[in-house]
## 1
Amino acid sequence: MLFVGRRAALIVLAQALAVAAPAGEIVQVKISDLAFVPAEITVNVGDTVEWVNEDFIDHTATAKSGEWDVMVPAGKSGQVQLDHAATITYFCRVHPGMTGTIRVSAKR
Amino acid sequence: MRMIEISGVAAAIVLVAVTTPVHAADKPSDAQIAHVAYTAGDLDIKAAQLALKKSKNAEILAFANDMVRDHQAVNDKALALVKKLGVTPEDNDTSKGLVKQSSEKQAELAKLSGPDFDKSYIDNEVAYHKTVDGALQSTLIPSSDNLELKSLLQTGLKIFTGHLEHAEHLANALH
């Protein structure tokens, strides 16, 4: 009984550690003067891209595939975590001339 | 003072057609430029508010909300700047022309509904932003003396160029 109890506790501990494990790095992209800077980045699966809007107007970071649409209000930030390898192009819905590319690599 | 001519093409709320080169002696003053820029933004907000009342198209409503938010943000910056610079925005023939054209177009739009309204509103937004962007490029930016005003107008041009691209995309989808 004691053995089963320890084993169960270990499983719970392992699950807790898995949940708490770092999900990846946070990679920042600035939004400045109506441009994503840098416009192209390479990240790994599990990383999070954080857009930091330095403009005085709101922007979005919207995947052309439609898989995500992140609001990035003026002076604030917005994030998306990337869960699969792909090359994703994105743009601002309000100012569609603003574009960027994220290369998501499977290698960790 | 050299005036920016207002043409009367029905498709546009405003057509600020710059037909002659700017000469230093007759270029608009910073006070007049600030007022024209502010008025142009304010009129587009009013057009967007009409769209928010009349349209049922989700994309038109989203676009109109974007116009209200962006133009208000630019105009807030413009107001803060003229206050800081101690400039009193000066009404002039160009801004008066903008208001007159806008009122006429608003009256036209108010009679329409459904898809007819949506098409007319977005066509007008395309024409309006083309015209304002053209005026910024050819007259308002080169004529402005104050560097902060010039910089704000340059940022405004980038923002409004984005609006033009967005409006053209929507217009293509609706027609």
Note: Chain A touches chain B at residues 33-34, 56-58, 74, 92-98 (CB under 8 Å).
## 2
Amino acid sequence: MLSEQIALLNNTTLESLAEKDRLIIVKNFTEIGLQILKADFAFAWWKSDNTKKYSLAYKTPNTPYVPNPPRKRGGNYRVQKSKKPLYISDTSQETYSKKYDISSYMKSYCIVPIFFKKHNYGNVIFCFRRKISFSTEKKTLCASIGHSLAQTITIHRLYSNLKDFKNRLDHTLDAVFIFDPVTYRIEYSNLGTVRQLGYSSKEICKKTIIDLQPNVDIAKFRKLIAPLIWKKRDSITFETTLKTSKGKNIPVELFIQLSSSLDGPRKFLSIVHNLTQRKKVEMESQKLLRQKDQFFSIASHELKTPVTTIKGFSQMLSEKLKNIKDEESRYFLGKINNQVEKIDHLINDLLDVSRIETGKLKFDTKELNLNSLVHNLVENFQYIVTSHSISFSSEGNFWIEGDNQRIEQVITNLITNAVKYSPPDSKIIINLKAVNKQACIEVEDFGFGISEHDQEKVFHRFFQSKHKNHKIYPGLGLGLYIARTIVKHHGGELSFISKKTGGTIFSINIPYTKCQLENAVS
Amino acid sequence: MPIRKRSKLILISEDDPDISELLETILESNGYETRVCMDGHETENQAKKLLPDLIIMDLWLPGIDGTTLTKKLKAKNSTKNIPILIVSAQNHLEKIVKQTRADGFLPKPFDLQALLSLVKKHLAK
């Protein structure tokens, strides 16, 4: 008899797994429990996952009243929170039943908890109008009903979570593949694959991941995924093209991860992200940058024409005024000339930034002697700048591979900044030395230094120092940004130290091609 | 009595009238003879006809542009020995000088003294 009843329970388990709704599973087991235990009526509580409150899940049609769900206070039924069923053989003897006056409906009842591991799903209450005693067999059956129901619900839960996960994966917009790490054959693909590449799941499962990539052969692919195989990396991402079912190549980003389950074989999980839109936007922005560069080229050329005229004629006028000894007018003309020079520099800076953005900043490199380059520059500065004393010393002779004009531009920028940001009559020291097989040009001033707040922004575009203790200096804030880009292009680094005693040392470090160290002082 | 040398003739190829006037004025006041051409074709014709001692060449010219014209003049036997100085607001003049086989360059805006010494240097060759 017992085995028959257990078989009935197993059958209910199998049938219930196909159900969509958990409450139907509860109903199935309540009905079958009623039959097995020969109870008169039964009902079940369901405990909500979120609110942890009990509600009525099911009651058999012949239940003589509507059971109120158990509440913390009040409610006419207790719940069984432990894993073992609770058996009440005589309700007239039980305090709880007396209190809520339920002995008129039933003489005996049992509460079967639906408990799996630590999870309490609810209770099923089987009620008897006659007074019965719970034999060992009945108790075993009660426990079995509870266990079977709890197991069924747990499996159902896991299954629907898995189904939900697969459903979500199937419907992601990105294409997702799972493929074999040895044969590279695709074993799973989601609906995103159909949408993006046009292949059906059946079609794609006949292909390997290499078949899909027109520009990648097996050797190249092996090389790409080697870090995954050798466990040097957890995942890799690279850009490639995939062939659609219609033969069109689309740019994609492929993310590949070697996924291993506890006992299953290792598989590659791959997520394909379509880059068509991104590439389109990139091309558009490249086009815009090119247009901007063209605009800057033309605009700077056109701006330089009037600058040339103003500069030329003011210089000629200056010569004339020199002849008639009108020094005051010459002084004013000098001011005009200075401003014209500034305009010229601004135009050049804007043009350079535009070139940097489009990657068009050109370099004409050859071997340069740094000593003579720096020496000539310093000499020019010494001639023009009367407010500061500028000195130059060198540890030796250095040659680098570089663009003469561009390196001059960097050093000029640093010396100009040193003059701009240090008080009149202070020193500016330029030093050329060897540091770690590189030529290092230091430009040291004794000025305001760079505040901690500003230090990380110094090389940003359009950055301007706004120190509270000194005035705001005019300019576009492009000089150091351009200087750093130029130095980087020479394989070097531009850095600075703000001295605690005041002042800054900027250092240009560029690998030298030749160096002769001596104790030379120029 | 010393023989008076003919003053050197400089052909100015420049489409901006103010700049050409500036070049004309500064060069003439330094004893050079000048001739101004406002476009590429005119420069080409005058160069062949006058065989000047030096040409100051702008790059953005109507007609034939300065780069093409310099290459053309440097390829022709009768004009290949005339020194050509490229004076332009365009970047990377060094490269253009190499490409066109021009003799020198001066970026705009230029310094008058720099212009004069460059002209002097190339006329002395």
Note: The two ends of chain B are 26 Å apart (CA to CA).
